[in-house]
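I am still learning, so would you mind making up any protein sequence you like and the tokens describing how it folds?
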Amino acid sequence: MDEKKMVHGEHVHDEAERAPEMKDMEHAHESEHREHGTEHEMHEGHEVAAHGEHEGHEHAHEEHEHIHEEHAGHEGYKHSHAEHHRMMMEDFKKRFIISAILTIPILFLSPLIQRFLGFTFTFRGDQYVLFALSAIVYFYGGWPFLNGMIEEFKKKLPGMMTLIALAITVAFSYSVAVTFGLPGKTFYWELATLIDIMLLGHYIEMRSVLGASRALEELIKLMPTEAHLVTPEGIKDVPVSALKKGDIVLVKPGEKIPSDGIIIEGETSVNEAMLTGESKPVYKKPGDTVIGGSINLEGAIKVRIEKTGKDTYLMQVVELVRQAQETRSRTQDLANRAAFYLTLIAITAGTITLGTWLYLGKPFVFALERMVTVMVITCPHALGLAVPLVVSVSTSISAKKGILIRNREAFERAKDVQVVVFDKTGTLTEGKFEVTDIITLDELGEEEILKYAAALESHSSHPIAQGIVEKAKELGLEVYEVSESKVLPGKGVKGVINGKEVLVVSPGFLKENGLWKEDERVNKVLEQGKTVVFLVLDGKLVGALALADKIRPESREAVKKLHEMGIKAYMLTGDNAKVAKWVAEELGLDGFFAEVLPHQKSEKIKELQEQGYTVAMVGDGINDAPALIQADVGIAIGAGTDVAIESADIILVKNDPRDVITAIHLARATYKKMVQNLAWATGYNTFAIPLAAGVLYNYGVLLSPAVGALLMSLSTVIVAINAKFLKV
């Protein structure tokens, strides 16, 4: 992507997320706003396309760099981005008010209005006054549309601005010709009311659209502006932008953490809901990582700053959201083409309408009014906004749920996913050993077996030892005191407990020492690929403990929900077939691939794709990067604060497989909203064009250009409101 970046002094803002039709209007106002200073300066040759065409079209290539090196950019971004829109809206409002005031004498001087209200008011040269007032409304009120048309022609993409500008220019030119000698009736009051309604409609639309596309601003707002810096002289309040890596800051209860860092003092609970979607407060102690923008709930803590500016988690998320909103989507391409053709249809239909009414013997002024109404009512405004607004809302929702979209096209494909392939370790399982079975091989009971084994393993850092100790803690067991503990390399551990020699050893040790006993229950767990250790008391085999990689409780729910959605769930693992089979049976998976080396994972995905499936791959994004790239949708799970995973299309911040379902639901809901909006926008035009042309004239139904403009604006507001109703 050819990115042109522009930074205006300290004030930086991003154009990509801005609602597209605003961009169009902004171009139209480009020359008007030079006096507002460089902060709001426009791009010289900024893209203006068909009002549908320009959405996400060329505009995506021209964006203001919205993240400053440090957080100074936050404030500048917030300020200039919001100010810029407000300025645009205020300008439309100002033009509307002035034009509306001038419209009053125009209506007062119009013969048709005088006849309608039953009074006569004429004076010498009144038609020239009417012309002068209308000329001001045409050039001042109509300037955004006239300038927009010039920009669209430069791009060879006639669109929304072209239609409005043509309509008002035809009406004005004909009326001027009548004023200066051409036989006929003037069109001044219709022209003035049309411009008034168009300005008001745009102002209302900009307000609606602004509300629906504030994803980035909402995220940026999460960042605090000040931090309590700990210095040798005491605590100093400094701007967040002044923080450097290694600085120590104090965060009081109720305050936001100023930047990503590590707690060095104090314990607390932190609310990360707005950042990662983790609903419960997260307990944090010294050594734990905290995210800038999260809220410190309980105790005062000191944090050593690790990342600042664009390297922080929040700023990386903002960057991902911005890129996702810029990415052109296939649905958008369809809308763009439709909007372009709709512009051509509008001009053609307008010309045919004019010719038909003249052929039927109607006065030129009547035929012209029909033509202008057709061109105005057909503006592809709603069509152009249908997709970008939904994109904006969905990226905002997903970011708040800890689902980050890197590739919009892949996200749109997620609605069609038929098979989800999960990596086993760390995704479906926790990557930690858990005691699954305790087998008694003598009189000693299960709890006693666990107490002896946990006591002996309590000083070891081996994953199996930790799994046994964890199980004893979980059951609230008091473990025995150990003396003379000794590691038997590769075989196990031995020690003395209550005066007895105790061993926790491998099956190999038992066989070597003639202690092995055949037992059906032991054979069963070994066949399942579980790791089995044995407890020996004073030379006698008394029990066995089977351990396996702990299955996440959320995995069962995730698989169940996928099945409910009609999606198959597969597993991919480098582990042996016995373990894979046990996990697959436990979770009710539809299939699995075991003993797959990292470089072979993408081949397995390809196999499923060759069977005709649309495949999503869920992994950690590290050793399964090729598989994530090969899949139709690559989902990296458990990214935590490291969201820059290049191989993934979608990044899940939390290590929760259920978020895969949320992502698919969101993709389906987003697509549904796009379809609803496109259906509304195209359906509206199918109904509006014949009505504007006057097909119901014989039934007394005739739309004026101003009513046409009102309907057009209303259709756009409906699209904006519908996008805001996107929920998951």
Q: What stands out?
A: The two ends are 31 Å apart (CA to CA). Residues 638 and 655 are 4 Å apart (CA to CA).
